[in-house]
Structures are given as structure tokens and as C-alpha cells.
What does this fold into?
Amino acid sequence: MSLAVEPKVDSEIAAAKTEPVRSWPATLHDWVTTVDHKKIGLMYIGMAIFYLVVGGCEAMLIRWQLFYAHNNFLRPDTFNQLFTMHGTTMVFFMGMPILIGIGNYLVPLMIGARDMAFPRLNALGFWVTLFGGLLAYFSFAVGGAPAIGWFAYAPLTEPAFARGLGTEFWCLGLIVSGIGTITAAVNFVATIIGMRAPGMTITKIPFFAWTMLWTSVQILIAIPPLTAALVMVMLDRDFGAHFFDVQNGGSALLWQHLFWFFGHPEVYILILPVFGMITEVIPVFSRKVLFGYEFMAAATMAIAFISLGVWAHHMFCVGMSRMQDVWFAVASLLVSIPTGIKFFNWLATMYGGRIRMASPMLFACGFLSMFLIGGLTGIMLAAAPFDFQLSDSYFVVGHFHWVLIGGTLFGTFAGIHYWYPKVTGRMLSERLARWQFWLLYIGFFVTFGPMHISGFLGMPRRIYTYEPSRGWEFLNQLTTIGALIQAPSFAIFVWNVVWSYFKGRPAGDDPWDAWTLEWGTSSPPPSYNFASIPTVRSRRPLWDLKHPDDPDWKYE
Amino acid sequence: MMATTVLLALAESQAENLSIFDPAAPPSQSIRTLSVLLFAITGLIFLLVEGILIYNLVRFRKTSAGTESEPPQVYGGQPIEVAWTVAPTLVVCILVLVMTRTLWEVDVTASQPKPGDHALFVTVVGRQWWWEYRYDTYNGRPLGFITANELHIPATTDSAHRPVFLNLQSADVCHSFWVPRLAGKTDLIPGQSNHMWFETRDHGLFLGQCAEYCGTQHAGMLLRVVVDTPEEFEQWLKSQLAPAHDDPDALAGKKAFLSEACVNCHRVRGTSAAGTYAPDLTHLMSRETLASGLFPNDAKNLERWVADPQQMKYGCLMPAFSFSEARRKDIVRYLTTLH
Amino acid sequence: MSASQPALSSATAIPGGHSAHAGAKPLTASQWGMLAFLLSEVAFFTTLIVVYISYLHRDRVGPTPRETLSLPLVIGTTICLLSSSVAIHLAGMALERQRQRLFCCWWALTIALGVAFLAGTIYEWHDLIEVHGLTIGRNLFGTTYYTLVGFHGLHVTIGVITMLIVLGLALGRRVTHANQIGVELVSWYWHFVDVVWVFVFSIVYLFGR
It folds into this structure.
């Protein structure tokens, strides 16, 4: 079903139809200078997949070192650099770029716009983000990456304890990529608020766009404090300042407060877009409208705001007062309520539907089952005294990987499998997708399940080896084996993406029989997105077109 | 979950017990009680929600001979939205109440030492990558000696509670004191004093390790808490308060030790060695382990350590001194007399 | 199957780009973009201010704010900066009324006042460093003061440079009444920088002394 009527941009279409096959320098030039949100989105995703592989290799090295107690595969400082860079890479150079990339590609299409509000700023944002990633990794070339942990607790980052230039490049890399992230957020806010198709009020936007909007608000509030704190670290290291210099009156806790004020909203930045993607997939594959859009939207806002006030649940053990502990525990428990609302609405959407278990839905169900568990272990950790035992243990490592991989990654795979036909015009292989899913799902359980137990048995995080007599070796071996099961699933995914681009079944405009605007244009969309900007009347414009006798706007 | 934990722990032969589910002191007992409730509540939520998910997948799966028409579109329903907002809120309220009570039980502010309080006050100074223990007061008596890496405490008996109050400080970066069977962890933050407490009736050894990443040998900063009977503890205090043994057979070694750089960092009370940077060696041989719990404390390991600490604990802050073999042997002989 | 566009009901149309100049018009995408950017700046400066306040009077060494900060000079620079906000507002109004030359005059005055503010700051810092020995590494006050006032000064500098570019374009008739969106956004930025200064001035020079 196409929304095309009469093309208004005749000359551009004529040119596109008669375009000759271009040489590779010309193609490269096109991509490097592009301001088209679709190409920029794909470049963000490409950057993220590259860093996913890099971070994954770091993880495999870590897991190999931990396979045996007292293993000496890696030196302690090498191990410490690897876990620092693994965390930094996955959060900043994989997680955020892939979500910003998917958002970049889809948001203009979903709201009926031709591009983002600021196309050139968009391009600048990508290249700056990439440059930040390269800067951070340049640290390996100047004497070693920093061995400070991805949250870099002061005063470990002071020159007395973190020698060498690695920390400088790490700080610079994050400052620079943070600027890129902020420009992306500015673009999303301006685009979603200011460039919607006629008839699409803010309460009618696709749910993914709504979550991208609130993710952007969180980015605008949470990233600048990190930028400021990183600048302070650099001022301490290179200009003699004393922000975190305890010997001269500086405060180690100040860094923790600043970092986690950023750090907690950061993990919601990593999950809210995924909530949006899941909310697009579940209705289409259950063949039912989203249950409770207004409540879902309100819950998203609630999560965005409450999550700004919970940061010190990462600091329960630092000696805060009991009242402070209570505040942060209560706020952290409160955030589970809107999250629960979302869960129930998703389940209610599926209830009474006709569920089609194609690969997007398979990954969405994987997300639901996993994120539930990760969320529940989070609720446990929010109860401060429980956290006194398990903070900084492998239980926490298990928890956050559960929500980041089980949540963010599974949800992102759902989104990629859903929208790949739109981006490329071809379907991904269902068979390969199922192999990927089950290897990932099972491998994931085997990797991160045992971590909860080693946490119960007293294993702290970030240790390069452990005593064989503490009962942790078998659990660590399970974890490493699980990682070995997961690793091929990523290879299968990359292979699926590449192979299907050339050999996948042609998809057509709307292979899933979906309802949002992006499915109303060709696959892939033309550079101008829509021949003419449609006017909409409900949250599911294509449903209205397909069901003129029973349109959504009668019920919304 | 607990059964699995126990089983897995037993699966490792002679595994040492650091399980948070085997508490030996009131703080960890309170936390275990809380965790039982947490498991129960989250377990129920898990079964409920996962159950609904599986039910949906089974019941509403599209059949292959399905019709082309769409199922009834349900846009929402306010009563049920309210229900599944209120129910989690109630659960959260319960959790908040229980958690707060546990918090007050666990988080006791340190009192001041008084004669007859049977309380032990120790200042713990975290250092890269070992633990310094300054014994301040016991039963109201000021003590004033400093040891390293093995914390001796007296057990509570029926006759008296013997709480241990730790004053946690750091000489460099953030560390964290975690002995799971005794209490939750508390961080050692440079520039401030944190407090924790525990008491136990169980004699023996309790293990843990630093739980806040603190640099290269964070993994090598193990904790050992030795719980003595009250009489054994008094004995131990007496021997620790005494100055270092002066064995005439080890005179050559003592002279070597005192003339080398050792004294810049180490302290041996009763001699001119008054370094404050490294572990106090006055009663070195009263400790079971070296290098913060990593190696048994015997002559062989001592010699290996003095020859090249970097080989044993890479990155530690003690450099290798190129002693001749004879000099090294003399120094180690001296160290082995420091009971 | 051809698409029949659903008829536009009484739903509010939200056009992008240019909007009509009448009453309570909705903000354009560009305006939302600048507001979003300013939100991030609010977060940034709030962080620096919170750190400044948390370290206030916590020093055990070195010159204190009371000993070193000179109120008369800074009142002078503040007057310059606040007047520049008035000037930029008048510039905007002139451009609205298509008074191109008057716009350029007020705009240039804004730049001059901004430069005066920066010159005053440089003079003040010279005095602090040479006479009082207050550097960023001297003590906590030095650390937090130079960071906070310095980043504000950096934002003023960026504003001045941007305004110079706009002035150049306006003199070349590339910025006129017809395309004044950029002028509006730059003046929002400039007003924001002024508001930040009001907070910084109050906290550093009044409350903190």
C-alpha cells in the first residue's frame, strides 16, 4: 500500500531513475558528505556494529582469563584496561550509536518528514561521535588504555594513580562523542516537535518517536554533567586543579555523584528507544492496536523523570546517611511501577491477538522474558541493605548485562529484523534469525546466570583472577562457555545482514502488513522519503487506509 | 536458589564459604531475612508475568489456517490500567517498609568506647593493595598497635556481646571492606571516615576481599578475619602489644634489615625501623599469610617475596631489591624470628 | 490500490518551518532546536555551579573569595553584559521593522559590550593571578572559580564570534528581515548567556564572598 499520489519533485525523481551506476570513489564521497538522515543512521549503526565486535573481543579475552583460577593468560593491568574499554565501548560507542542510528533512520519516516530538522548538524554529530570513539581507542597507541573502570572512580583517575596518557584520551573521547550525542538529541527534539505531518498531533506520533523524544530530553539533561565532570578530570590531570584531589581538599564522592547523575539516566537512554521499538513490533505481530497508548506514553514520561532522581543507588555503600539511602531506594523502587505498567500493556496487546512468530516477534518475546528478570533483580538491588551485600559483586554484573543484553540488545535485534526490509528492500533469512536467536538466548543464560550465583558466593567484580578455594571456578567456566555459545550468534547475525542484502527475498513496501507511515513508502525509501507528505488522522494511518470502514480515529 | 548455591558451593571440593546466605553476624542475618522476602516477591511476580506471556504465546498463536480478518482491536481500558498501577504500588510500599526496617537494623552508628563495653574499635586503613589495622580500643582500654592483613576479633559469648566497630579510612583510592558472612560491604573513601560493625559467636576464619576496584592488584587484596575466643584474643593482644622479638641468632639479619631501604617503608616496633608506608612487620610471623592473603607465610614464600615481589604480586608497590643471596637469606632469617 | 487521503478533520495542523506571524504561534523546529540546546547548557552550568557551591569555604589554604574578588570591576562588566542584552533586543526589533542599518548598529554595540565584558574579565584574571597568586591549582577556590567563570567566558566568546559572523553577513545584505531566524536564535543564546551570568555573579561575587 503506497501513499504516493503525484510526485511533486519531478526532476529529482527523474534524475534518480536515470542515475548510472557510480564508481566507488563517488559512492564513498556521497556517504562521507551526506546529510541524508537515512545514510547517517546507517553509518551510526555501522559504527555500532564495528564497536560491538571490538567490545565483544575484549569480553572474550576477559572471559578466557577468568576461565581458570590464577590464570596468567593476561597480565593484571592488561585485564584492567580491557574491562575498562569493554564497558566504555559497549555503552558509548555501541549502545548509544545504534539507538541514535535507528532513531535517525526511522523518526523522519515515521512522522512524515523529509529529513531531520538539521541535516548538516546531523552529519556533524555522527562524525564527531565516531571521532570520539577513535580518540578513546587511540589510548592503546600511547602507552595503554586507561585501567580505571568505565566509571572511573576518583581518585584513581588522578595523575598519581593513573599514569600515562590513556586517561586523557579516554576523557577526550567521551567529551567529544558526548557533544555528538547532544547534537543528535537536539535534532530529535526539533524534528519530533516541529516537523510532523499535517494531522499528526503530538499525541498521535508513533510510540518509537515518543520514546526517542524522551530519550533525547534525558540526553540533554544527563550528558552535560558527564562532560563537565570529564573536563574536571582533565583539569586535575593536566592543569593542576583539585576537583578530585583528596590530598588538597577535593572530594572523591563528588565524582561519584556527578558520574552517576549521568550514569543512571544513561541506562534509561539505552532502554527507552528499545521500549519504543518493542511497542512497534508487538502490535503488528499480534495484529492488534497497542493497548493503552496514553498510559504507555505517561509511563514513559514518568520513567524519564523518576530516573533522574535515583542515581545514588549506585552508591549505597559509600557511607551516605540512612535518610539518603531511603530516598534513593524508594525512588529506585518507584521506577518499577511505570515499567510494570508497560509490561502489562504489552501483554494486554498480545492477549486476544493473532500472534505471528516471525523473527521480530521472536526477539521481542526474548526481550520480554529477559527484561522481566533483569528488572526484577534490579528491584532486589534497589532494596538498599540487599545492595550492601551485592553491590560491586558479580550479581550486579549479571543484573546489568541481563537488562542491557536481554533488554537493549534483544530489543534492538527485534527492531533490526523488523525494519531491515524497509531499509534494504529485502527480507532477512528467518532460518538464520532463528539460529541467531536461540544461540544468543541460551548462550546468554549460560553466561550471565551463573554470575548471580558467584555474587551470592562473595565474588567481587573487576578482579583479574580469584582464589581456587572460593568455589567460583566452576561458575566462571560456565560463564566462559556461555560466551562461546553466544559468539557465533553475532557472526550469524552479521552474515544474515550481508547475505540477505544480496540474496534476500524482495520485501516490497509493507511486508509485515504494518500501520505506521514508514511502511507507506517504498523499500528502501527514496531520498526524499515520500512523494508527497501525507495527512494523518490517527496513530495508525495505514490501518485507516486499509480499513476505511473501521478507522482508528473513531476510537482514539 | 539457596539449594543451588549450596550445591554449587559443595561441588567445589574444600570450597571456602563466603556465601551471603550463610550469615554469622547480625547485619548479614538481617540482610538474609530481607533477601528471602525479596526472592519471594520477585519470584511471584516472575511466575505471574512470565506465565501470562507464555499463555499468550500458546493461546493466541496464529494458526496456519487462519482467517484474513484482524482480531478485535482493543484500545485500552482504564479500570485495568488503574489496577495494574495500584497493585505494584502496594508491593513497592511493602518493600519500602521492610527495607527501611532492615536498614535501621544494619546501619548502626558507632558509639564511643567505654570501659566494660567489651567492644573492639579498630581503624582500618585501605591501601593499594593491603589492609592496615590500627587497634584503637578494646573493652575501654586504649591499645595503639598496628598490624596488617589479618584482623583478629573476639567472639561474642553468652557472658557478653563483643561487637567490633570498624572505622574505615583510605590512604589512597577507594576500597571496600566485604566479608559477606559478617556484614554487607562498606567503602573506604579517601578523605572521610566510614563506619561498620558486626559481632559473631562463631570461631574461626572469615574470608572476603576488596570490593571496589582500586587498581592493578585489586584482585589481590584479600580479607581475613580471625575470630578468637575471648581468652585467645586477650593472649593475642598481649603478644601484639609487646615490642619485636630480638633473637640473638638473627643479629646479622637484623643489622642487614635495619641498614637497607626496608626501614623506609616498614615498621618493626622496638627497633629503629619506623616506616609507615608498608605493612607493620613487628609480629609478622603471627600472620598466616603474606601479600594480603595471597600466599602462606613461610620461609620459602618470604624469601621469594623479598627476592622479587613483582613475580608474586605483579604491580604491587614494593620494588625488587637486588640483594645478594647471602644478604637476602640473612634478612629473611631475621623476618622469620618476628613472632 | 490508490490511496485516498483521509480528509483533514479539525485536527490541529503542525506545519514545519516558517510559521505565520500572529498571536500565540507555535514554535518552529529551529526554535525548538535552540531550546533543546539551551536545556543542555542549563544542565552543564548547573553542574559547574553545584560544584562551586559544594567547595565554597572548604579551603584550608590560599586566598579566599573575599580577599581577592573585586566587586567594582565586576559590577562594571556585569553592566556591560546586561546592557548588551538590551542592545541585542533592540537590534532584533530593528530588523523586524526592516531597519537594516539600525540593526547593524545595535548588533555592533552588542558585540562591543560583549568584548568589553571579556576585556574586563581578562583584566580581572590578570590581577588575580599576578597580584593575589590565585591560579587554578592554588586551592579549591581557584579550581572552581576559573572553571565556572572560564566556561561562562568561553560561551561569551563563542557568542561574540557568532555575532561577528552575523554582522558580516548583515553588512553584505545576506541577513535581512526576510531571513531573520538566525538572528533570533543567536539572540536567544545571548540572553541565555546573560542569565547564566546573573546566577554566576550572584553566587560567586555576592553570596560566596
Summary: Residues 76-111 of chain A form the longest helix (36 residues). Chain A has one domain: 39-554. Chain A touches chain B through 96 residues (CB under 8 Å). Residues 39-554 of chain A form a domain with the Cytochrome C Oxidase; Chain A fold (CATH 1.20.210.10).
